[in-house]
């Protein structure tokens, strides 16, 4: 029996999925009631992407294990939708929206940018869900909010106040060109180019795999063979005091600060939220690093950036909550009700729309 066939139409539940290159987090959600938060998560599970042949397999297992039927799914994923496909080089498998609809018997499948979801969720987070990374700078003035996170790639979005609501501008900031800030980083850029990277994106160094690339480059500069192949291993070695691993982690933190400063200048952000990724595992290194100094080192813009607080959000349900929040505000339309945005159709015909067209519904 399909998921749609098992739907209890009296229960306004749907599935929100946060699809990353390493993990997919899936939640059974509904709107909050009364004094509850905007979104109530009824069930939640994290899956290792490489353990499954497709996103459909993950969703099917989640539906089966929770004994629920659904006919609507909203997916937060890095990348963009081109025709029927989610374009994202970091995913272990392709995502076809029409195949998801057909295999799971779904009536509605919507895709939004993962950091568009995170930006929607950030405004729902309680203070105890975050850690201040800019001591002495905790209050912000009203204005745009930058949400960024280094995970399998580097994602970012900007939440902009617009009357009584907000507009969320998703970006592909991780694919912008890497900008070195000192001689050592110039050498890192040159080495990446020598290794065949004609375009060296920011996320080549500022992401989970980027930490591995940093460590590898520093090993090359020190004339030693890299012995660590994973971000967690490099982080643990840094905690043990291994010099190259420690330099890699501190350099990573400094680069992240520099990128945040650049994006804050571009967006006019008055506050910044770092949404998970690998930084929760590195947060104890941030005070020792040049994170804040590099963020502020933007010439004439330094006095402006000195007033911008940066917080780390530690809630692994962030993407699920954000996708659900976006859907509850913008996505609950029957086929044909959109002025601009996803063009829905009957299940099985495969009609979908690019994710960036959904921004009109903001």
Automatic annotation (TrEMBL):
One of its GO terms (biological process) is glycolytic process. Keywords: ATP-binding, Kinase, Nucleotide-binding, Transferase. One of its GO terms (molecular function) is D-glucose binding. It comes from the Bacteria. Pfam families: Glucokinase. InterPro entries: ATPase_NBD (IPR043129), Bacterial_glucokinase (IPR050201), Glucokinase (IPR003836). One of its GO terms (cellular component) is cytosol. Residues 334-362 are annotated as: Disordered. Gene3D superfamilies: 3.30.420.40, 3.40.367.20. Belongs to the bacterial glucokinase family. NCBIfam families: PRK12408.1. This is Glucokinase family protein. It comes from Lysobacter antibioticus.
């Amino acid at each position: 029996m399909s998921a749609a066939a098992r739907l209890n139409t009296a229960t306004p539940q749907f599935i929100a999925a946060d699809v990353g290159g390493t993990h997919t987090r899936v939640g059974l959600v509904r709107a909050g009631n009364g004094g509850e938060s905007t979104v109530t998560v009824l069930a939640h599970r994290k899956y290792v992407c490489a353990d499954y042949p497709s996103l459909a397999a993950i969703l099917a297992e989640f539906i089966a294990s929770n004994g629920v039927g659904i006919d609507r799914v909203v997916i937060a994923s890095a990348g963009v939708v081109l025709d029927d496909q989610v374009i994202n080089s970091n995913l272990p498998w392709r995502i076809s929206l029409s195949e998801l609809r057909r295999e799971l018997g779904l009536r509605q499948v919507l895709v939004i940018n993962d950091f568009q979801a995170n930006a929607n969720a950030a405004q729902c987070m309680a203070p105890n869900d975050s850690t201040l990374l800019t001591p002495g700078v905790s209050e912000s003035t009203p204005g745009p909010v930058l949400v960024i996170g280094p995970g399998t790639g580097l994602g970012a979005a900007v939440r902009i106040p617009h009357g009584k609501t907000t507009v969320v501008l998703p970006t592909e900031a991780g694919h912008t060109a890497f900008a070195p800030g000192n001689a050592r980083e110039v050498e890192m850029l040159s080495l990446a180019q020598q290794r065949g990277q004609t375009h060296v994106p920011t996320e080549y160094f500022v992401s989970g795999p980027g930490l591995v690339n940093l460590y590898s480059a520093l090993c090359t500069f020190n004339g030693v063979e890299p012995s660590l192949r994973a971000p967690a291993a490099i982080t643990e070695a840094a905690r043990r005091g291994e010099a190259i691993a420690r330099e890699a982690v501190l350099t990573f933190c400094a680069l992240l600060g520099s990128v945040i400063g650049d994006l804050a200048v571009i967006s006019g952000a008055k506050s910044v939220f770092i949404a998970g990724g690998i930084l929760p595992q590195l947060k104890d290194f941030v005070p020792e690093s040049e994170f804040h100094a590099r963020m502020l080192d933007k010439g004439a813009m330094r006095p402006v950036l000195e007033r911008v607080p940066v917080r780390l959000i530690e809630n692994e349900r962030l993407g699920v909550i954000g996708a659900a929040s976006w859907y509850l505000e913008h996505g609950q339309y029957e086929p044909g009700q959109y002025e601009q945005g996803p063009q829905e159709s009957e299940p099985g015909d495969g009609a979908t729309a690019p994710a960036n067209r959904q921004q009109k519904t903001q």
